[in-house]
Amino acid sequence: DLFYNVTSALNPDGNRANCALFCHRSGNRDGTSMDERYTGDTYFNIGVPRNVEIPGNPEPNIGLAATTGDDGHKGDHKVPTLRNVDKRRGKGFKKAYAHNGWFKSLESIVHFYNTRDIKPACDPGATEKDALAQDCWPAPEVDENVFGGPFIGNLGLTAEEEAALVAYLKTLTDIPTPKAPEPFDLSKFETGQLR
Question: What number of CA atoms fall less than 13 Å from residue 82's CA on the CB side?
Fold first, then answer.
């Protein structure tokens, strides 16, 4: 209900998390499209902090503006699909989220969406671990064109509601991993063993 903006006992005003409003949907607003990819293929600057853990500490990533040359696109990055958002290459595989990998868990990026605008500012060089320990968020990597409004920054979700969103996101993970096809063996085809 939170993800799809459905009015219910859990989401009485029907407008809390706003995930599927226009950012994370490609088909119907209720996720029932057969080809749902959970992205609107749009670009936004959500205010992700600079990741100082990237080797060489490169300059801030200006996003779409690097391609378009339009200052109105500074910091904008494509909304990713949420399909397989929690899929791992194997046991113990570490995932990172956002364009620069600053977030190391779904829990922390959902918490960021919920509280970005209401927590105090951290040191600009703070890592995710630092920010969570100090209960703050660093300034955005690109401070221009930061997207906000009712869609990010002060959603008013409880810890339980954040956990419910994370649990739902994990359901978008495909269970089977297709096995790569075996090389074609012409001799099996010629002898009728392969049809």
Answer: 23
